[in-house]
Amino acid sequence: MAQAQEAGSLSAPAGGAMGGEAPEDPLKAFQQLDGVAKMPKLNAFTAPNDPLSPAAMLKTVKLEAKLKADGKAVEDGLIWSIFSPNAGPDEKLPLVATATGGSAAFQLAPGDYFVNVAFGRAGVTKRLKVPMVGEVDPQTLVLDAGGLLLNAVSGTDMRIPADDLSFTIYSADIKEDGERGLVMDDVSPNEVVRLNAGTYHVVSNYGDINAIIRADIQVEAGRLTKATLQHRAAQITLKLVSEKGGEALADTAWSVLTSAGDTLAESVSPFPTVILAEGQYTAVAKNKDKIYQKDFKVVAGQNTDVEVITSEALHRPNGDQAFVAD
């Protein structure tokens, strides 16, 4: 179990994660080591230098990939690509053959190749020489990769609906222009992301206004890291009513302001819902020719209704502001 607030480092081994149920046995889905082995789907093969080579010259090349050097071979989820080392007219390396699944076997003519294997966002490339005489030893590529499963809570342990939550994963290193390299965006909670081992900078968005937190997370080779980030935010429903507990008035235009007076959100709805970071705010409601205003406080993890009561308000014609006592 792991938690993070605005910034910092965290990592957690496969295990329970606060704030939401993970998919059934995500470690199995990540490593896929316990299921029935799947044969790779072979899309193409050819000799890079002499496509008319007789079949007798072709050599069988067996390939497998591991998440770490002392781990088991990955049985599914791999994408194998074989390239010629000689660039074509477009200055790109010609693709010789591909396969998907787990361990693969290719029939290749003698010559030099680049072998690439991808596992999600993780990957590794190795140079391969197929000799004219003799067999080719089985090849093992070590991905040095792990998995990352993200979730978040608000306050101490309030579960956040998945539809309101998304993550963006960046490289930990900051480039010369001050930006980080984007690894993957729009990551859903409880989605297993396959990555090369290393440290990543994760940004969690709760809603689409200002509930944003960041954390540096370490991904270890051969392990599924579960990380739960902790937001300091809550969901607020705004209502303009004539009396406490009354029905929300229709045709109301709303603005949400920071304590400094900056506008964060605007909408036209009887009872709009906004997700806000912990702090002080002002709700401004415009209905017909009157404007009402109320200050309110957001407490992390405490979803609540904020009622602006017209009967308690001093109101003025549209264009001026009237204030409601808290």
Comma- or semicolon-separated keywords:
326 residues, mainly beta, Immunoglobulin-like, 2% helix, disordered N terminus
Question: Can you describe this structure?
Answer:
The chain is mainly beta. It folds into three domains: 3-21 and 146-232, Carboxypeptidase-like, regulatory domain (Immunoglobulin-like); 31-142, Sandwich (Immunoglobulin-like); 234-312, Carboxypeptidase-like, regulatory domain (Immunoglobulin-like), CATH 2.60.40.1120. Helices cover 2% and strands 52% of the residues. It has one helix and 25 strands. It has one helix at residues 26-31, and strands spanning 3-4, 9-10, 41-44, 59-66, 78-83, 95-101, 104-108, 111-119, 122-130, 139-142, 145-154, 158-159, 165-174, 180-187, 192-196, 198-206, 211-219, 224-231, 233-241, 252-258, 263-268, 273-277, 279-287, 290-298, 304-309. Strands 1, 11, 12, 15 and 18 form a five-stranded mixed β-sheet that branches. Strands 2-17-16-13-14 form a five-stranded mixed β-sheet, with no helix packed on it. A five-stranded antiparallel β-sheet has the order 3-6-5-8-9, with no helix packed on it. Strand 16 and strand 17 (211-219) form a beta hairpin. It is elongated and about 95 Å long. The chain starts with a strand and ends in a 17-residue tail after the last strand. The relative contact order is 0.15.
